[in-house]
Amino acid sequence: MTVTTAHTVSTAVTVADATIPYRVEGDGPRLVLVHGTGPTADLTWGALLGRFTDRFTVVLPDLSGTEPVRDDGTPLTLDRLARQLIAVIEATDDGAPVALAGFSQGAPVAAAAAALRPDLVDRLVMIAGWGRPDEEYVRNLMATWRAITDPDAFGRFALLTGFSRPFLNGIGHAQVEQLAGNLPPTANLLRQLDLNLRIDLRELLPRITARTLSIGLTQDATIPVEHARELHAALPGSRYAEIDSGHVVVFEQPDELVRLVRGFLLEQPDAQAPAGEDATA
């Protein structure tokens, strides 16, 4: 079923066992925004949507592991999510390649899609991404989070690792308590955490041809900033930028994030690196 309201279209595409819903809003070249672990695309990107729809047709898919998606419940794989993302890109085809921006788990998913179908993607933004499963800090963080069974403790662990100390102290107790209850340990979320333990981009990265920006977060306690730097170093000619933020930069530093992403996407191909970005490999 397709629902259309003004410039917004909500529909879905079937990929193997899964029905993948997505929303399309705005006008201009396509920009596909990919969510991270847990929240839907709208919860991740919804507050920033109006910052992009003036120049882009924004596509917001919900992939397997989010609550709106119905599938067979089997373990997730990077390839499976990337194929779902590719199907959404093909379903919204306007004759031109897309820009992809992925946050957290969405960063390696977007990168995998760009590697598997380089003809479909001309720009790639990876925000707080990572590309290998053998870093003990990330492995133990995800395993610990996965093992927490108490819903309140599960949400508070996500809170403490997802946001910086200055941000939490700055928003006050009432809002902290509200955030703590936003992420219960659903079966789908646990599937996403299982995937986070296995994500490996190393064989796919050489296949990426899109112009790429990797954004690292200097106060990130979930995915340390060194991982974003590694992704940048693995892609010759890519851009790199850092934001002083905890992991959930879409809430902590939305203005700086939008500035960097818009600047990169609207930049002409032969332009020099914008201020604050590194064009070296």
Mean pLDDT, rounded to whole units?
93
- Strand composition percent: 15-25%
Strand neighbour order, sheet with most strands: 1-2-3-5-4-6-7-8-9
How many beta-strand runs?
9
The end-to-end distance, rounded to whole angstroms, is 45 Å
- Estimate the global geometry from the Cα principal axes: globular
Low-confidence stretches: 1-6
Biggest sheet details: 9 strands, mixed
CATH level-four homologous superfamily name? Alpha/Beta hydrolase fold, catalytic domain
* SSE arrangement, N to C: EEEEHEHEHEHHHHHEHEHH
Number of distinct helices: 11
- Provide the helix percentage: 25-40%
Secondary-structure arrangement, i.e. CATH architecture: 3-Layer(aba) Sandwich
Count of individual domains = 1
Radius of gyration: 18 Å
Text of the CATH class: Alpha Beta
Here the CATH topology equals: Rossmann fold
Structural class: alpha/beta
Can you offer a commentary on this structure?
This is Alpha/beta hydrolase. It holds the Pfam family Abhydrolase_6. GO terms for molecular function: hydrolase activity. The protein has 281 residues and is an alpha/beta fold. It has one domain: Alpha/Beta hydrolase fold, catalytic domain (Rossmann fold). It is built from 11 helices and 9 strands. The chain has helices spanning 41-45, 78-91, 106-116, 136-147, 151-162, 165-171, 173-180, 187-196, 225-233, 249-252, 254-266; strands at 3-5, 8-15, 18-26, 30-34, 57-61, 98-103, 121-127, 211-217, 239-243. A 9-stranded mixed beta sheet has the order 1-2-3-5-4-6-7-8-9, with helices on both faces. α3 (106-116) links the parallel β6 and β7 (121-127). It is globular and about 50 Å long.
